[in-house]
Target: Putative ABC transport system ATP-binding protein
Amino acid sequence: MKYIHKNISKVIDLSFHCCTLKMKYIMVFITKLLIGDDGMTIFADQVNKTYQSGEVTVKALRNASLEIPDNKIVTILGPSGSGKSTLLNVIGGIDRYDSGSIKVGETVLEDLKERKLTDYRRKYVGFIFQQYNLIPTLTVEENVEVGLELSQQPLEMKDILQKVDMWDKKAKFPYQLSGGEQQRVAIARALIKNPEILLCDEPTGALDEETGKNILKLLKFVNEQYGTTVLIITHNQGIGEMAHYVIRMKSGEIVESYENEERLDPEQVTWS
Ligand SMILES: Nc1ncnc2c1ncn2[C@@H]1O[C@H](COP(=O)(O)OP(=O)(O)OP(=O)(O)O)[C@@H](O)[C@H]1O
Model:
């Protein structure tokens, strides 16, 4: 098996140099099939996280356990303060947890020292936030370049900007763009490094229904085209209807999780 892996890796290396982008993804897909690589399944086991704010102790996560298979869209719902962002942040390696275990692919996050955790985050995780967080003094293209970080297999700038329909506006600055356009740039910035996991904290929270649904379509496309696992935090219950899995949180606990038997297209979800 190792031999096959080694040789296929060589073929892939070669393909990265001489094939079209589409071919690269076909090659990666074939490799995954041949070597039985089940990708970046996310396991969380009894994870706890407490914040100390002055004299007040807040239990942001209470024994949170979950398993998210590779290549899925997952919606995380729950009232304000229920621990959704904390869960995303510990999975993404932005924050540490107090106890329990998180394993992403072969990486056990609590085993990583600070530098390795940063490497994990840079290599495997892309983030999108409600407030796009673009750098105002940089153009669209320069903002997306920021996302490259330590990437070993980045996507091509032109390809990704075309995918989010921002190639024609690559020289514009954030203040010259609508909210939806800024979010598309933020998605391109998160995607350019070709992350395994895309963590989205209220990605449509600042957008109207039509623009928000366009962003959801883009996230669905990213999941299907690149095989990226997409976790979406939202207060909009309807967004759960397009996901493979839905997780509900309350007071730091995961109180419900289920798989959707049928998924709706982003245009069909109930907007609230
Ligand atoms: N850095 C922090 N310091 C202190 N308390 C924090 C910190 N971050 C989060 N908390 C607290 O932890 C709890 C969970 O917060 P979290 O942001 O994860 O919830 P959430 O479900 O994402 O909320 P929202 O939907 O409002 O974004 C809240 O009570 C919050 O006030």
Q: What stands out?
A: Residues 1-37 form one domain.
